[in-house]
Design brief:
mainly alpha; two-stranded antiparallel ribbon; 4 helices; 2 strands
Length: 111
């Protein structure tokens, strides 16, 4: 899966969760948690399955201010309430602040 496909999967699961019967809701909650744990375990690196085995991964901890990982962490925290899902927010906040500063610097250069 690519990062955009993870976003689609996460949002679809979360949307279904709101109307799911209790047993299916529990399964969805577990899937949201498993996806987040998988991304964290892999250091937020995702390989495109259509690429050769020696292809470089998408390094989501350093790219796109990591919207996909933020979404996964937020949803996992929402369904579990477990504090360790909030731990990544400090890192991601600093990454976002860095990105916003770079964007502001780039915009100043264009004037």
């Amino acid at each position: 899966m690519t990062p955009d496909q993870y976003c689609d999967a996460l949002l679809s699961l979360y949307g279904f969760r709101e109307i799911a019967p209790p047993t299916e809701r529990a399964a969805v909650d577990q899937m949201l948690q498993d996806i987040t744990d998988f991304m964290t375990c892999r250091n937020c690196q995702i390989w495109d399955l259509n690429e050769p085995l020696d292809a470089k991964p998408w390094k989501l901890r350093e790219a796109y201010c990591n919207a996909t990982h933020v979404l996964a962490q937020a949803l996992a925290f929402h369904v579990t309430g477990e504090d360790h899902y909030r731990g990544v927010f400090g890192f991601l906040r600093r990454l976002l602040e860095k990105f916003l500063q770079q964007l502001a610097d780039a915009l100043r250069c264009k004037r």
